[in-house]
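Ticket #4471: structure output looks truncated?

Reporter: J.K.
Steps to reproduce: submitted the chain below (160 residues) through the standard prediction queue, then opened the result file.
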Amino acid sequence: MKNAGKIFAANLVRLMAVRPDLDTQLKVADKSGVAQSTVGRILRGTVSPTLENVEAIAHAFGKAPGEMIGSGYNSAAEIVYDRVRYAKLPKEEKLRVESYIEHALREHDVAAARGGREFNQTTRTPLKTSSNPQATGSNVFTKNEQATTAVRGSKPRKAS
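Returned output as attached by the reporter:
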């Protein structure tokens, strides 16, 4: 198998390891439309994937074909989500997702700076800064805008 095929197979193995919904050859085959036997041969390195197979499997994972054959793939930096559905979100919703990710990363950094290797807390995620002079705080939250964040297998607490 050529180098690009080996890289594709290695990236496919990494993605399957972090995606419970696509963690078997059969699940990948069902979602991508590529035969399970072909997925297996690609993973074993006995065949190089065709362009059509690369595209179909990449789409199943919500990736661009180029992401699947690039050697710079880093599963440790992967945020697992359905990229196809995310792409369909309105801009405002995408900004909310990005805002929450930034918030979670900041909270983790604060906990790490305090010496905690893990953190487990319920936080209220701000949607925007209030311009209302009567607001008691600078952040405005909508009803039920709470998120539980758990890192490294810690058990989330129920919001009170």
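Triage note (M.O.): checked the attachment and the full token line is present. The two ends are 56 Å apart (CA to CA).
Status: closed, working as intended.
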